[in-house]
Amino acid sequence: MARAEPTARAKRRAAVLISGRGSNLQAVIESCRRPGASASIALVVSNVPGARGLEHAKAAGIATRVIDHRAFGGRREFEEALDEALDASAIELVCLAGFMRVVSPWFVERWRDRLLNIHPSLLPAFPGLDTHRRALEAGVRLHGCTVHFVRAELDAGPIVVQGAVPVRPDDTAESLAARVLEVEHRCYPLALELVASGRARVVGERVVVEGASSPDALLINPRA
Ligand code: GRF
Hints:
The protein has about 220 residues and is an alpha/beta fold. It has one domain (about 10-205): 3-Layer(aba) Sandwich (Rossmann fold). It contains 6 helices and 9 strands, in the order E-H-E-H-E-H-E-H-E-H-E-E-H-E-E. It has helices spanning about 25-30, 55-60, 75-90, 105-110, 130-140, 175-195, and strands spanning about 10-20, 40-45, 65, 95, 115-120, 140-150, 160-165, 200-205, 205-210. The protein binds 5-O-phosphono-beta-D-ribofuranosylamine (GRF). 5-O-phosphono-beta-D-ribofuranosylamine (GRF) binds next to helix 1, strand 5 and helix 6.
């Protein structure tokens, strides 16, 4: 008698919200295609018509929606439309990836512990915009990115994954941004997998990751 195939665990349906280039979107699309991935990207929403990232979604055969915030009377109406689109696609997890709208406490609570963001700094350092220039001005030796659960406070919330890079003496904001972006493209897929698989959970406003170890390597900068 033929043995029944073990039933594959259903993937968590994730949406990615973008406003622009969509390189992090592309990184999560690729990682979710891998066999055994715990999430599938079921919807991409842009608040900016014609955002470049929409092309990545279309090329991957993923449903897209443009919900232009300018078409709504206020933030609440815009977010209600967003929320309806997410529900209509039975979305379970939402990833903000270069989504240039501040989300309200209402939306944050609605998606509490199911809403991730990537920020281009080692939070809690440098919340807000222009992080690479500010990191250079502050003279930090290490910089990086953070994937975190979203809370009502800007660029704050339980941290899932961080990736660090050295800052070099000849760095410009652009060269530093490019080095951080490379690490972003590794951190977001990892964070999404940890959350979608249930290995990363929020416990008392910190994230506990089951069965994960930490690297032994130290990143010390500069080398003399
Ligand atoms: C990334 O640097 C991300 O950390 C920040 O916005 C940028 C988006 O880039 N929140 P992309 O659209 O994913 O290429």
